[in-house]
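--- STAGE predict ---
source: upstream dedup step, 1 unique chain passed
mode: sequence only
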Amino acid sequence: MLEIRSLTCGYGAKIVISGISFDVKEGELFGVIGPNGSGKTTLLRALSRVIKPMSGEILLDGKNFQDIPIRDFARGTAVVSQLLPLVEMTVEEFVLLGRTPHFENMQFVESKHDLQIAHQCMALTDTLRLRDKPINHLSGGERQLAQIARALAQEPKLLLLDEPTAHLDITHQVVILDLLRKLVRELKLTVVMVLHDLNLASEYGDRLALMSQGSIHQCGIPTEVIDFSIIEEVYKTVVVLKNNPVSHKPYVFIVPQEELLKDKVRK
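--- STAGE serialize ---
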């Protein structure tokens, strides 16, 4: 569904990512991981058309991103950013903003159909109960769910998320990622998400792309990417890998420097 071919982009004359190539299949939950400064956010900005490629191309269903009219692009692709502005509107009003790309010419207010779609998306994300509550009165987890509801109201085929679990407790992390997995499985939605947490990426990602210094270091299923030698090479830190006893996905344990020193003394 999504093809990235020899993509190079950055800001001004500064190149941040260079020569990146990979593809994302339809109905796949695809995770992008990597250390700070590896180019994850820049990649997501390119995929969401915030910045233009310096070279290379991004194809959506075989069409070059830059050739897709912006209104059509907004109908097919939705973005959930890491930070939500504290706007003065209710959850329902906020979610209805997702219907804007579907407005007909000279349509200035939401139709009954728009309202129906918005309510369906709020029901999917368990935010319908918050419909009359101001966005700036929500918890971090509730705000993130409202953002996802607004994105779903666009009726996209592709959903892009930047750190959807950042600053959330484990309860809300599981709620968000379980929801994304459900949307992928039931609605055949294609999801690309940037994650810092390697264990969440391993647990929920169908495939992962590990970025390092502006390029793709490794791409594949979690067991091919979350490997102790690969993680140690990219993150420059010692780790231990075990399998999750329930899902059997690889799980990363950090090793504090103090424990390494103690181990050396014992030896």
